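thread: overnight batch results

M.L. [08:02]
morning all. the overnight job finished for the chain we discussed friday. pasting input first so we're all looking at the same thing
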Amino acid sequence: MTPDGVPRVRLPTNVALLAGLVPVLATVAAYLLNLKAGGRLGPEFTCSPFFEGCVSISRAVRSGPGLHLFRAVMLPCAACLFLSWWFVRAWLTGSGACSGRRAGVIFACGAVGAVFLVFYATWLGTEGEWYRWLRRYGVTFYFAGTAFAQLLLVWVLLMENNRRGMFFGKKLPIRQQIKTCKK
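M.L. [08:03]
and the structure it wrote out:
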């Protein structure tokens, strides 16, 4: 923290990068580990799980040795995701970009995503109706919470910014038809 209470840029940036890149690498590593081990995936699923029409990420890592790797990596990633939204909240309120209430809503949405990522990763590969429900809603609320937090963050940064309507420091010829409410 700096003396005025704003977090240093290095730690939040590194945590956000870890929260974003490590899950992608973990998915690829777990998928390749399962393919190498000859898991339950058929030969039609030897493609990238990040493209439509291929195997889903859940199916790619649901069983085999890749499941353990995926779980071991995704739980700390959920903690990094939670921390990154905590840093975003501190940054927004410390810089005065928005009110504490709006920053809290953004943090709450991101925290919901992080908590449901824990549910999804913990119960992946288990059997039963209750566990299926936890996985299904875990991944749904993970994506929804994270995406909604990102959309709100973009909205705050674009609409609540004093430089709104500026492009590289120059005022754009935009008419003032949209009236916004100030905090």
